[in-house]
Design goal:
It is a single chain. Helix content is 55%, strand content 4%. The protein has a two-stranded antiparallel ribbon. Helix 3 crosses helix 4 and helix 4 packs across helix 5. The radius of gyration is 18 Å and the shape is elongated. It has 114 residues and is mainly α.
């Protein structure tokens, strides 16, 4: 399964519902369920810590947070595949290290985790 297959219409709906405010009958904004699990304040602080980055709008922060969650999920699934192939039940660092050279889209991580 590649990255394109993982981002389907459901993820697109989740992104749009996470920052579009709705109104209920009382005129107050309806509460949207939290679909982003990463703390947005921390994501924004990380973005601000980059000297090349200027101001980031709320939509940009949400998109970066969601992309990060999808990336972490992808890496975790690939690491889990290596764990299962090794007939173990616990994902270990070596499983992550083993999946990096095999998958072309993860080669930028080579040496970054040392």
């Amino acid at each position: 399964m590649d990255l394109d297959e993982q981002f389907d219409a459901n993820d697109e709906d989740v992104l749009s519902s996470s920052y579009q405010g709705g109104e209920n009958g009382s005129g107050r904004a309806a509460r949207q369920p939290h679909v982003i699990q990463l703390p947005l304040t921390r994501v924004k602080n990380i973005i601000k810590s980059d000297p090349d980055m200027g101001l980031a709008g709320q939509e940009a922060v949400l998109l970066i947070a969601k992309a990060t969650e999808l990336f972490i999920g992808y890496v975790a699934r690939q690491s889990h595949v290596h764990t299962v192939q090794a007939k173990r039940k616990t994902v270990q660092r070596r499983d992550l290290d083993a999946c990096i050279p095999i998958h072309d889209e993860l080669t930028f991580l080579d040496g970054a985790l040392e």
